[in-house]
Amino acid sequence: MINRKKIIAGNWKMNKTQGEARVLVEDLIRDIGKFDEAEIVLCPPFTSLSAVSELLSPVPNIKLGAQNMHEAASGAYTGEISASMLRELYVRYVIIGHSERRQYFHEDDATVNRKTKAALAAELRPIVCVGETLPEREADKWKDVLETQLKGSLAGFGDKELADVIIAYEPVWAIGTGKTASPAQAQEAHQWIREVLKKNFSATAAEKIRIQYGGSVTAENAKELLSMPDIDGALVGGASLDARGFTGIIKNACLK
Ligand code: PEP
């Protein structure tokens, strides 16, 4: 059986000024700077990447991520940020296709596919988000929705590309709502994602890929969720904004 190292990422969304980011990162370095049982990724807003990068430079266990990027290498795209700009700041991961990007910025699977390709070409590790809405869950369409999103987002890729991709299963109805998927519901969805990947790529690629769960993860529910066999980590929004909440998730879920 393949041993998949857990990966816990904090998505700060549009929160924290640079000063606030420094305080949080200093607290995290004190608490979990030497934690080696999981891969830890912080995704601050673009404006804090440089400051956080500097603070993390002597801390190899905590990596830097971005929340978004543009697919083009450079050009007339006012307000956008390219993969090479992220690389220059030692960013290693980038969240792509978060449901808020899909909902408010009209990103579809084709956009996610182009951005994921551009991220891989720049040697960034994309965290590709998929997940169904509440009406889709209630109509029992979640399997079809996930399959369509995965096929569209990963179109044209092979096992080689997939090896550097992380999938985040984030049911839209659980994001920022305090309504978490039950461990059984989340496990069922993760298992389905692995089946879709097996069908479209290979059994080995599907077995190797890490799939994070995201949606109202807290220090209280993390252990049970992450003890499920196909849940390889968490993408954390609200609870990643304070050091106690985020370290609580990491320690509760990943300490042996
Ligand atoms: C997210 O934004 O990716 C997320 C999962 O948010 P929250 O943890 O606040 O539900």
What is the topology?
Layout: E1 7-11, H1 18-32, E2 39-43, H2 46-56, E3 62-66, H3 83-88, E4 93-96, H4 99-104, H5 109-121, E5 125-130, H6 134-138, H7 142-153, H8 159-162, E6 166-169, H9 183-200, H10 203-208, E7 210-214, H11 222-226, E8 233-236, H12 243-254
Parallel strand pairs: 1-2, 1-8, 2-3, 3-4, 4-5, 5-6, 6-7, 7-8
Bound molecules: phosphoenolpyruvate (PEP).
How would you explain this protein's 3D organization?
The structure is a single chain. The chain is globular, with a radius of gyration of 17 Å. The chain has helices spanning 18-32, 46-56, 83-88, 99-104, 109-121, 134-138, 142-153, 159-162, 183-200, 203-208, 222-226, 243-254, and strands at 7-11, 39-43, 62-66, 93-96, 125-130, 166-169, 210-214, 233-236. The model has no long low-confidence stretch (mean pLDDT 96). Helices cover 44% and strands 15% of the residues. The chain has 256 residues and is α/β, with parallel strands linked by helices. It starts with 6 loop residues before the first strand and ends with a helix. The protein has an 8-stranded parallel barrel, surrounded by 4 helices. It binds phosphoenolpyruvate (PEP). Residues 11, 170, 175-176, 214-217, 235-239 line the site of phosphoenolpyruvate.
Observed structural traits:
binds phosphoenolpyruvate; 12 helices; 15% strand; 8-stranded parallel β-barrel; 256 residues; 44% helix; alpha/beta; single chain
